[in-house]
């Protein structure tokens, strides 16, 4: 890696040097300003008065972030590794809307996806420990993904069946005009959001809805239980004690012997 | 078991051979298509234009699944074991609505119960581990059933008593016209769904409803706590393996040595 | 205790003998019927047609349960112990409404408090294990009571402060007419029930409400966490292993030495 | 510290002596009465009839609490330590509104922040154990703060992006007039509050909202899992006591002997 590439990498990707830190602070500020600009521009009164200024500001940021994206590509040895990473995709999606809006009116609103870039904010502050905590959450999410998928398929099958039943029971008058809308109602109810734009009117429908609500209320316990268990596991096994014989980590706090090789800890 | 029976069993019930895998993929596709057909057919505009095509499609699927059901019965030595299993009942309920709709208009909507057949989807993918995770959830549900029943009786008694009290306090004007409707309101509120179609208007009613909401909000913790504990237990001790040396159980799935005495498991 | 007292106690309080079991089954049936009667009687159409029959039925049950209450008093050596127990108070409250309704119209609705008597239902079924599970839940509730009280005082202080702030910000137009009503809105929102009968209209109010919602959404985690921990503790320490030396129970599953007396388990 | 300072400190800050206990009881009573006064005064009917009396009452309490604040400052050696503590800030905020209301009409409503002073209530009752439990909750909150911050940034980025998307999809007709309001809707929905004042009308919007609801419903599990784990940890290891023989920690509060090696703690 050439020298200028190494220097660029230091500034952009790491926050150890003063230049690196300053880059990150400016980046965060730019992201926050650009998201605020898009947000305020969407309010009619503000757009009518200051519309042009906001559009100029947004193009300024888009050009700025495009230059930054190109610099990121140049500062790594394998650009494809960055392009397909979580942050790489977010950064690309954060650039597109403004270019799209030349063709499609209004899509510049999507610029707010830039707010996901704020997850970089932790490189400015006590980087190490925030990122370690984020990793704990990430490990927990990944470890529980299979149980979550099983759970989701069950939930989807339930809301479809319940939606269809309510469509049969309530019919058009209460708003249950077809199955898709009834499924929407079932999701609104089972997640306990409960807008009230559609609500059962017939006694049978209300009785059936009651069963669904108590079910949803109890079923909420399942993903919570899954997540709690996984976060607990991820938290406990970040204990950095490594077995002296086999150097493996991930022992429980009260283990006396290494469960991987049998040596005493 | 005769040879053709064994071959049939391999294809339908198992997914080890290419034929078995192909059967499962086609089955999933057929289920998804048939559920989509029923869902779209329920939308008025679509039904008016394409109604006939959808009905033909649904009958095609019903015949297909009936043939599949018969094949399943033929491919096992004890058909009753399949008929009364969880999947057996789902498969039967997935067939009935279309036959019923010859007599009762509209019941073909219930065909969406076919979506529960999608739980078979895990035989196509990493079968083993998804099914193991599903078993963990299932064990947790079964192990907690007694606590859940105690909890449910308590909740039912509460919503009945609260509903009757609100019927007394609020009376007809706010919509609390009788006890069944007031109980419905109590369930809608305690599960925090909160449609707003019925809401207390009098200060006393609102005060009482506030107590119910804080109660429901805290009581939600109970089934969640129950489920978390059971999922944790089911996850950790799905291995009933006891250490040969010290006979202790409770080893994690990835343990190779007993953490209590160091002997190999 | 006299012989007839003992026989009476066997039938009423215990479910070991056929007579005891029969008594409990009849009792459950009577409770269910009487709650159903009160519930249906509250529906206008039904009351107009069958009102008189229902009132006769309710008086029949009230007399029946009064006789049962007197029998319970006679069947124990210390009646006061029953009168002030959980079930004793429930049973008394289940009798009063009908007598009150001679003076106050409509209070017979409160007869549904009889539904709490359904908690006796577990004496008919697998008594032992349901009651043990109920005891686990009860122990968990009792053990967590102090944390719950601290939590509740914090929640009440929060909803009062937030309610007053919203009353200041929103004023009369959005329905935040005075502090009590604003506090009611704060509870409806923080518990995520969200009727929508009162909702903030001003941007500042909506921003402030957003903060409250995210807070309530996260704060819900606190009682859940408390309950999960206590249920876990109550579940684990019902392990019936008693220390051979000091006979104390409540050891964790992986304890090797008794934590009370130091002897090996 | 002079003698009168010591005596004052005993009365105000501690509750060991009869005078100290009496002071606390009177303080709690005064706080409750003053919060009740502000609450009732906000109701129009009551203010019209008794307005003057309430204002006099509030000024009485404000003077009383100002005197108490000054006494607290005098009773400690380093006043700044009290001024910047949690309770010190609460006590100051509890005094300001009435003084502010000379300039700004209506701000006396903020007097309800005095209700936070009710957290002192635990010094009157079984002080030790309630404060220990409160410390457990406080430790849990502090220990989880980093995970909570990571979680919050993720939630904020999500509601902004979803809000902007819905603003694009639904447009003005359904109430999604600009991004700030759409973000407000996203928060109302993701926290499952669901007022219903704004709700998606287009099929695409409803489909997208459904995904958000299931997401929010599952994401609720994350802070709950975090809190549960931290409360569990804080409960078990509030004793930092290490076993003198084997130096292991993690003993429960009621352990007398080390569960790992049997030695007395």
Largest interface: A-B, 59 and 68 residues
Gyration radius of chain A, in Å: 26 Å
Q: What is the strand content of chain A?
A: under 5%
Largest sheet of chain A: none
Q: How would you name the oligomeric state of the polypeptide chains in this document? A: homotetramer
Q: Which fold does the CATH topology of the largest domain in chain A refer to?
A: Four Helix Bundle (Hemerythrin (Met), subunit A)
User: What structural category characterises the helix and strand content of chain A?
Assistant: mainly alpha
Q: How many strand segments of chain A?
A: 0
What spatial form of chain A do the alpha-carbon principal axes imply?
A: flat
Give a quick rundown of the structure.
By secondary structure, chain A is mostly helical.
Textual characterization of the structure:
4 copies of one chain form a homotetramer. By secondary structure, chain A is mostly helical. Chain A has 2 domains: 3-126, Voltage-gated potassium channels. Chain C (Four Helix Bundle (Hemerythrin (Met), subunit A)), CATH 1.20.120.350; 143-233, Helix Hairpins (Orthogonal Bundle), CATH 1.10.287. The first copy, chain A, is built from 11 helices and no strands. Chain A has helices at residues 3-13, 18-41, 44-74, 79-83, 86-93, 96-100, 127-143, 145-170, 179-190, 203-219, 221-236. In chain A, helix 1 crosses helix 2 (18-41), helix 7 (127-143) packs across helix 11 (221-236) and helix 8 crosses helix 9 (179-190). Chain A is flat, with a radius of gyration of 26 Å. Chains in contact: A-B, A-C, A-D, B-C, B-D, C-D. Chains A and B meet through helix 8, helix 9, helix 10 and helix 11 of A and helix 2, helix 7, helix 8, helix 9 and helix 11 of B.
């Amino acid at each position: 890696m050439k020298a200028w590439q190494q220097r660029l990498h230091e500034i952009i990707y790491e926050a150890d040097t003063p230049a690196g830190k300053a880059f990150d602070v400016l980046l965060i500020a730019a992201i926050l300003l650009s998201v605020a600009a898009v947000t305020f521009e969407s309010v009619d009164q503000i757009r009518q008065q200051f519309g042009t200024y906001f559009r100029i500001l947004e193009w300024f940021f888009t050009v700025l972030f495009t230059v930054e994206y190109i610099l990121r590509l140049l500062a790594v040895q394998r650009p494809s590794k960055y392009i397909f990473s979580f942050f790489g995709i977010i950064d690309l999606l954060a650039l597109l809307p403004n270019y799209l809006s030349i063709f499609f009116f209004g899509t510049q609103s999507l610029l707010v996806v830039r707010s996901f870039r704020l997850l970089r904010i932790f490189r400015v502050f006590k980087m190490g420990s925030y990122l370690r905590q984020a990793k704990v959450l990430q490990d927990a999410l990944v470890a529980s993904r299979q149980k979550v998928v099983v759970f989701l398929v069950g939930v989807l099958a339930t809301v479809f069946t319940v939606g269809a039943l309510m469509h049969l029971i309530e019919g058009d008058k209460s708003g249950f005009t077809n199955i898709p809308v009834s499924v929407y109602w079932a999701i609104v109810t089972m997640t306990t959001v409960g807008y009230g734009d559609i609500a059962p009117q017939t006694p049978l429908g209300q009785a059936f809805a009651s069963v669904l609500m108590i079910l949803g209320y109890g079923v909420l316990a399942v993903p919570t239980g899954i997540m709690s268990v996984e976060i607990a596991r991820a938290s406990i096994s970040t204990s950095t004690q490594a077995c002296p014989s086999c150097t493996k980590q991930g022992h429980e706090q009260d283990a006396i012997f290494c469960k991987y090789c049998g040596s005493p800890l």
